[in-house]
Write a structure and sequence with these properties.
The chain is an alpha/beta fold and 314 residues long. 38% of the residues lie in helices and 17% in strands. The C terminus is likely disordered.
Length: 314
């Protein structure tokens, strides 16, 4: 069996069932895998991937392996890891996987180190952790790496900083900047997954719940999609703004309003943070709300005395 660190290999069968179910909704990746099985374009290439360990990622890893790659996968977010999927990747598909839902900080970085122990020639990141680990802890391996990919805004920001300092040692494809990523992920996917997380975490009936949606800076496609998805579920929304750059004009169909934070009290029970400027969103409430974030979390927010849910990660 391949090297691994997962919670329970007894969950293999359930993981396989869910991975195959997800594949039904991934026709493009399935077509690529069928082509890869014939052409083997990645024969012998070592790939270290640090991504959300979910059914969708599992099908991506299967595709890379079909192309001949030697894949090692670790989790980019311990809270999103699906333990049955991790088990299936190891026990059914023979892919080295290092991921346990809820793993602590030490285990998280040990898993990244284990993936990098394979001496990758290609890297795949969602947050630039593998890239940062190689640059910071394993500079002697950088000459072995051909190229990599980065999926998210936070990671791209980190990599642009490395590039500006002249320290980025190999080329990276910024997947986050692809138009298809913005269309399917930011514009359409985020609204559904965010509200799914809120509903799973709180069990609220949104038609009876006022949902303030906080937006810092501007009303972009992510916030637009969350607002639209909540509206379609008949929630009553209050749209917040933290800076003068916020433009409430294009807005809010017929039930949204542009509120400043100091006007928020009494306007709802759920806040969804659609901004990296999290410290701007620590209002004082008489009745603490449920809060969810789409971004990496600032302890100045999570340490506040109200119920906090990472909505997308549920």
């Amino acid at each position: 069996m391949v090297d691994h660190d997962v919670k329970d290999l007894g969950q293999v069968a359930e993981g396989v069932r869910r991975i195959e179910w997800a594949e039904r909704e991934m026709p493009v990746l399935r077509a690529i895998r069928e082509r890869f099985e014939k052409e083997r374009p990645l024969e012998g290439k070592r790939v270290a991937a640090c991504l959300h360990v979910t059914t969708e990622t599992a099908n991506l890893m299967r595709t890379l392996k079909a192309g001949g790659a030697l894949v090692a996968l670790c989790a980019s977010n311990p809270l999103s890891t699906q333990d049955d999927v991790a088990a299936a990747l190891v026990g059914e598909y023979g892919i080295s996987t290092y991921a346990i839902k809820g793993e602590d900080n030490d285990t998280y970085y040990a898993h990244i180190e284990a993936a990098c122990d394979t001496h990758p020639e290609l890297t795949m990141d969602d947050g630039a952790d593998v890239i940062s680990f190689l640059h910071g802890k394993r500079p002697e391996q950088l000459s072995e790496v051909i190229a990599g990919t980065e999926e998210t805004t936070t990671g791209v920001i980190r990599l642009k900083a490395l590039e500006a300092e002249g320290k980025l040692a190999y080329p990276i494809i910024a997947v986050n900047e692809a138009l298809t990523k913005h269309l399917f992920d930011n514009r359409y996917g985020t609204g559904q997954s965010t509200l799914d997380g809120v509903i799973r975490a709180t069990n609220v009936l949104l038609v009876l719940t006022n949902v303030p949606l906080s937006v810092a800076g501007n009303y972009g496609c992510i916030a637009t999609n969350i607002f639209g998805a909540a509206t379609n579920l008949s929630a009553t929304l209050t749209v917040l703004r933290s800076t003068h750059r916020f433009n409430s004009a294009p807005s809010f169909s017929n039930n949204g309003f542009g509120w400043q934070l100091d006007q928020l009290s009494g306007h709802g029970t759920i806040i969804i943070l659609a901004s990296t400027n999290l410290v701007d969103w620590v209002p004082v409430f008489t009745n603490p709300p449920v809060t969810g974030s789409l971004q990496f979390l600032d302890p100045r927010v999570t340490n506040q005395p109200y119920r906090f849910y990472r909505a997308v990660e549920q």
